[in-house]
Amino acid sequence: MQSLASSWKGALNRNPASIQPPHDSKDSSAVIPQPVSANNLDIDLFERKEANPIKLNIEPTTPIAHGLIVKPDYKISKLKLLKSISDTLPIEVIHGEGYVSDMIGQNVKGIEGIVTKIRGSSGFYIQTHHADSYARNGIFIYTKEKQEHIKPGDHIKIDGFVKSYQPDFAYRENLSATQIWMTKLKVLSQNNPIPQAITVHRDHFNIPDEVFTGFAPNGNIEQIGVPFNPKTDALAALKTLHGKLITINDPVVVGSSDGRGYFTAISQSFIPKDSLNSQGALIFDEQDQFYPGRFLVHSKKRLNIGDKITGPLTGVVNYDRGMFTIELIDDFELKTKELSFKTTNLTPSENHLRVASMNVEKLSTKDNTKKEKNKFWQIADTIVNRSLSPDILMLQEVLSDSGNNEDNKNHSQETLSILIQFIKDLGGPEYDFRYIRPINNKDGGKPGTNPRDAFLFRVDNKKRLKFVDTGSPGPRASSQTRVGSKKKLLGLTHSPGRVVPRSKHFKKSRKPLAGHFKFNGKNVYLVSHHLRSKKSDTPYLGRIQPPQVKSQAKQIEQVKVTRSLAENIIEQNPEALIIYGGDMNAYRGSATIQEFERDGLFFNADPLANGANVFADASYIYQGLAGSFDYLLHTAGLMAHGEPEFDILAENPTLELKHANRTSDHAVVMAKYYIPK
């Protein structure tokens, strides 16, 4: 009889009105529950290309778990029938024809395949030879303990049970992976040729631009019956590759290596014309396509954006943290890009206020290591020699001095003092700082870290620039600032202060920091922000389609709160000089940024955000997608003497995580405002 492994082309034809089987069945050998009706019915067990379908006539009877009863003492199961035709159960049958297998939790026997890659001590991948590139003929075998005797090229047969495994960050609605958790293993032969890798390319195995074009109840595609169309939907095409060998012959590195050793690559054929920005990353604003042809590639080599891979990337496709990944089976040749570091073109001027926003990524005294050019040195060098010592810096992600120790002190005095000393040691001017000490574990972040914003400002010419301290002596975590006046001079009731810190929209979230400055005798008001992160958003290539930008609604509410301070100032002085900046965790053109700009309250200094130059550098790059996260926004009063100048020191997000010159995952953004005496 013909082998089912080569002849099986379809799936069981099922009555969709499936019943819920009871749980008292004593027979667990069957693997697929089948419905029965009140009348006799014919069931096509499978479709075969070169043979007539096999049909069973089922008499009315009582349903039981895992199979069909024809007579009280006889049972027919799919697995037994498949065994009567072939000694193997094809991997394709286990995966099924949707985003989730309908064999989850079932015991299976006699699964065969060629080992393609050993994955640490947890298991290995197997795959069969198949002429159809869309065949789902690869799968991961979980073994719990390393099987030392198993090698790539081994032809194996296993027993086990089918498991739906969801990788890390389950709360982010990752896709699940169908695996077999092995209970029995037999090596049939060794040193076999492994299946040929599929060439992923626009002209070979195409990954469509549309992620998902169908409909899924409640948006969850991992349900039986959801359309699975690999020719039109990127998610379906990528799912057919899961567990299989692929090759990318023309890879482009668009994302640098992260902390786990993954860099982002994409076939050149999937990059539309004019889609790379000046940093070499993919232009993205959350309204564009998601470039689903991107893969996270795991390698011991550390890559920066712009490095050139001179050969193909070949490996097994997996899925982790919202992205499809490649676990390499061969090494690759690499030509590293020569690095250069930009100095800002925003040169100092007596009548220009130069402001910078800098996310210092969890800076604390723990970064003051014995290394000569440690993180403090790198940040100070960026401030002095590349930013040319801005007048004011808005800093985000300054932690408690102790880092993450639960000492309940929550100060940043030592951390900021160390930074100021490094600036002086590098020949920079004298700086001072202001911040609000958070209440322990009330501002987000890991326990004990207490991230906060801070102002760093020059004090070498106090007639030109000075900070206006008002309010209760010493910063307090609950110090809410409002618009106040003294001797008819507009000011803040607390400077430094917080903008509505008790608002429910900033609960367990970083509070905006407000400060009142005098520059050339003029009042200037700054608010530094670090809005809610995007961790609550669902992945672009996740189980929820279309993806949900859950963070946006929360961010908009935060913006409404922090806008209130600027609105109150403008109400009393329409020409007031106000600068809002920081890490907004929102892409250009998003509803979050539009809320700042609503009614013409704020204007964006960034030409990328305004669409004037879409190829310009971006302040943040995530998995190859470049966009603006960091902003400097200003009121109309700051345009009275012309448009502000803008600049970005964009190297940080292009560098791999452990690079010696990388100080943060964000770029430094700067603006220069003309404020004459």
Determine the fraction of residues in helical runs and give it as a percent range: 10-25%
Distance between the first and last residues' Cα: 95 Å
Structural class, by secondary structure, is alpha+beta
CATH architecture of the largest domain: 4-Layer Sandwich
Over all CA atoms, what is the radius of gyration? 30 Å
Overview in brief:
The chain contains eight helices and 36 strands.
Molecular structure report:
The protein has 3 domains: 1-86, no CATH class; 88-338, Beta Barrel (OB fold (Dihydrolipoamide Acetyltransferase, E2P)), CATH 2.40.50; 352-467 and 523-674, 4-Layer Sandwich (Deoxyribonuclease I, Chain A), CATH 3.60.10.10. The strands form 9 sheets. A 7-stranded mixed sheet has the order 10-11-17-18-15-13-12, with no helix packed on it. It is an alpha+beta fold. The protein contains 8 helices and 36 strands. The model is unreliable at 1-81 (pLDDT under 50).
Notable traits:
single chain; 677 residues; alpha+beta; OB fold (Dihydrolipoamide Acetyltransferase, E2P); Deoxyribonuclease I, Chain A; 3 domains; 7-stranded mixed beta sheet; 8 helices; 29% strand; disordered N terminus
Blueprint (SSEs and pairs):
Blueprint: H1 4-7, E1 41-44, E2 55-58, E3 68-71, E4 74-76, H2 78-85, H3 91-95, E5 107-119, E6 123-127, E7 138-142, E8 155-165, E9 177-189, E10 198-199, H4 234-241, E11 245-248, E12 251-255, E13 262-267, E14 282-283, E15 295-298, E16 308-309, E17 313-320, E18 323-328, E19 334-335, E20 352-363, H5 375-386, E21 392-398, H6 413-425, E22 431-435, E23 452-458, E24 465-467, E25 483-486, E26 489-492, E27 497-498, E28 513-519, E29 522-530, H7 550-572, E30 577-583, H8 591-597, E31 603-604, E32 620-622, E33 625-627, E34 630-634, E35 645-649, E36 668-674
Parallel strand pairs: 7-9, 10-11, 14-33, 15-18, 20-21, 29-30
Antiparallel strand pairs: 1-2, 3-4, 5-6, 5-8, 6-7, 8-9, 11-17, 12-13, 13-15, 16-19, 17-18, 20-36, 21-23, 22-23, 24-28, 25-26, 27-28, 28-29, 30-34, 31-34, 32-33, 35-36
Helix pairs in contact: 5-6, 7-8
